[in-house]
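Supplementary Methods, section 5.1.

A reviewer requested that the exact input to the structure prediction be made available. We therefore reproduce it here, unchanged from the version used in the analyses.
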Amino acid sequence: MAHSWDTDDDDDVSSSNYDFDWESMAISALKIFAWIDLIVGIAFAVLIFVKYTKSEGAVAIGIGIAVFLQGIFIWALFLVIASIAQNLIAIKENTKPQKSKSQ
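The structure derived from this sequence is encoded token-by-token as follows.
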């Protein structure tokens, strides 16, 4: 019993109908995650400074600074990775072989 999906009539369906720009979505998600990490890192650093500085003293200040710096460094790292990914995509698109017009 043959089903409609068993036929080879799928040649007329363009694959562009099913294309999805995963690269752009992944880069956007990475940028969003970078900004969320920066905001959360700063918020937790401020929370640690405010809540624990009086009771814990220098330890709380050190941990607060560490959390703050972690937020900044991870933010920068993710943005650099996103930029590298964008450049790699541009290189891939600009180096595709082009069909000659004489054919």
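Helices lie at 22-56, 58-94. These observations are discussed further in the main text.
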